[in-house]
C-alpha cells in the first residue's frame, strides 16, 4: 500500500514503516557518533519503550552502553488494510538494528499498568537477564485500569482553581486562537494523579524487588516536565502537574524503601518536545513552536535522543549527579533558564494568527510531528508501495 499521513485533530492515525525505521536509525546513528559510555547500564527495563523519551532511553542504553534491553509498550499491530502504530514500527526497527549489532532485546506489548504484564516482564528478566540495573519509567497514557479494583481512571488536562483563558494553536487547522479552559474538580485531579502519578511506578519497583530482580545499586527514573510561567497554568500548576508532583513523592518513598539493594530513584526533568503525548496538551503546540524558534536561534535545540544522551552521561552515570531542591535531575536548563524564557515570553505576547508563521518555528513543529509517525523523512520514497505488515 502507498501510505500517506492521515491526520485527525492532534493525532496521525497511521504510520509509515520505512519512515519509522529511518527515524530509529537516525537516533541510533546519533548515539553511535558520541563517545561510548565507560560506565553505563547493562541490563535495562524500559516501561514505555516504543516512542518519545522511552524509545530514546532504550536506544541510548543499547547502542551507547551495549545494554541488554527489555521493553514494555502498548502498540497496535498492522493488518493488511491498516498500518500499525508508529510505536509498533519503531519497535520492529529497534529489534532489527539491535539484532544486527548482536544486542539482546525483548519487547512485551500489553498494558503496563496490569499485574499480568508486570509478572510476564519479571519472568522474562529472570529467564534472560537475571536482574536489571536500570528501570526507566516513561509511560504517557490517558487512562489506567487499577489492577486491584478494576476501576478505570482517566487523566484530564485542566487548570486548577480557576478558569484559564489563553492563546493556543490548533495544529491541524493551522489556527492560533483563544481558548478558555474550565478548572478541574477534585475527582479529575485525583484521577489524573492515579494515571500519571507515581503509584504504578512504585508498584513496578515493589514487584521487581519482591521477585529479586533488582540488581544491587539499581537505578530507576521517571520523567517529568516542569517548565516555567508560560506553561504552568496548564501544566506545572494544573492537573498533570499534580500528577508529576506525585512522582516526586514516589521517588522519595522509593529512595527510602529499598536500601537493601541501594536503589537510586530519580525524577528526571526533560525539555518540551513534540511527541504523541505533548501534542495532546492544549497550549503546548504553541509554546513548543515558539521555544523551538528561540532555541534553534540560540543553537541549543535538542531532540529526545540528545536529551536522553545528556541524562545518561551527565546525570545518571556520574559519581555525584547535580540535583535541584527536590532531588530531581534536570536536563531542561537550556529551555527553562530566564534568558531563554524571556525571549519566548516576548514572542508569546506578540503572536497572532497573522504573524504565527514568522514568529514561531511552524515548519519545525510540523516536521517533527510528521516524523513521529515516520513521514517527511529525507530518503524515504513515500510514493512507493510498502507492505504494512512488519513483524517483531
Ligand atoms: P509518548 O506518547 O511518546 O510515549 C508513551 C509510551 O508509553 C509509549 O511507548 C507507549 O506505548 C507507552 N504506553 C502508554 N500506555 C501504555 C500502557 N498502558 N501500557 C504499556 N505502555 C504504554 O510520550 P513521551 O512524550 O515520550 O512521554 C514519556 C514521559 O516523558 C511522560 O512521563 C511525559 O510526561 C514525560 N515528558 C514528556 C515531555 C514532552 O515534551 N514530550 C517533556 C518532559 C517529560
TrEMBL record:
Gene source species: Aliidiomarina halalkaliphila
Self-association state and partner proteins as the record states: Monomer.
Protein's GO biological process: fatty acid biosynthetic process
The Trans-2-enoyl-CoA reductase-like NAD(P)H binding domain, residue ranges: 2-80
Keywords for this protein: Fatty acid biosynthesis, Fatty acid metabolism, Lipid biosynthesis, Lipid metabolism, NAD, Oxidoreductase
Protein name in UniProt: Enoyl-[acyl-carrier-protein] reductase [NADH]
EC identifiers of the protein: 1.3.1.9
Recorded name of the encoding gene: fabV
InterPro entries referenced in this protein's UniProt entry, alphabetically: Eno_Rdtase_FAD-bd_dom, Enoyl-CoA_Rdtase_cat_dom, FabV-like_NADH_b, Trans-2-enoyl-CoA_reductase
